[in-house]
Amino acid sequence: MGMFDKLYENLALKRKTIVFTEGLDKRIQEAASRLIIEDIMDVILCGNKEEVLTSAKSNGFDVSKALIIDPESYDEFDKMVDLMAELRKGKMTHEECEELCKKSNYFGTMLVKMGKADALLGGATYSTADTVRPALQIIKTKKGANLVSSCFILFREKDGKEERIAMGDCAINLSYEDTVNKETGEVILSSARKLAEVAVETAHTASFFGIDPKVAILSFSTYGSGKGGTVKLSHDAVLEARAIDPNLTIDGEFQFDAAVSEEVAKTKCPNSKVAGHANTFIFPLIEAGNIGYKIAQRLGGYEAYGPILQGLNAPINDLSRGCTADEVYKMAIITAGMAE
Fold first, then answer.
1. Which of 36, 61, 181, 324 is the most exposed place for a label (fewest CB within 10 A)?
2. What is the tally of helices (H) and strands (E) in the chain?
3. Which residue range forms the structural domain that includes residue 209?
4. What does DSSP assign to residue 132?
5. pLDDT by residue (tens digit) across 253-292?
6. How many distinct structural domains can be found in the chain?
7. How many CA atoms lie within 13 A of 177 on its CB side?
């Protein structure tokens, strides 16, 4: 099965609607035009209709069949503000919600909350924080999830065979610290539990994309060969992940070579079911994850799809501000294709 086959199947089963928060961006317009021509989903563009249509035309794209919505003139704007004020009761005033709903990142997220769209894709000009913050405040994390994380699905063809791997978290969580009750000092949510959740969610995402997840939680140590740094965190996260999902094939902590090389695994961890065969990699720090997936992409010849956000109640994904129109198009298929 090809990389996007399941996504296309999902889109064919039930018509989906995606909202793009940056309707004036040329790359968004090009991707939207392509999606409209292929007629595989409905498209909403945020922005002033006349400005978006004029801009798209000057850029050589026809987005006239998209639903273009201007927050300033949206006929259900008051209803939207009232709903957001209720959702943010005690945290934001009605006036603050009104001002935020005029911003396309919040406006688009509220369209998803109101059921006007199934999924959202933003970040062509917005920062990751500006895409994730409204999602956390409005869409919120799904039951059982304590944090939002991300993963990349990496794909390449080598020697006539398809290869897919997953890597998380490479874009959202900078590091993992215990969440502590400020009054009692009690640990409410441990750092290991947080990393374990990233591992479990990344395994689920990998499975969705046709990867049978063999999960390696990485560090600079294999089975306690090193001390300090992230070693204990990675080791403890393995135990926590097994508690969350006893059926998950997961092991560590591993150095990367032990995770992927059968020869190294025979020496360092011969009894592991994951070592030497890992295809889903969990990084204990964002620096390692971000560097790792970019090395795989640039030197390993992998195509990288993501970041795919995990743990939310609806598919909301973030684009790199350096993205291409083709990347926007593919991320739109991924985002809408993952909607229920």
1. 181
2. 13, 13
3. 149-303
4. H
5. 999 999 999 999 999 999 999 999 999 999 999 999 999 9
6. 2
7. 5
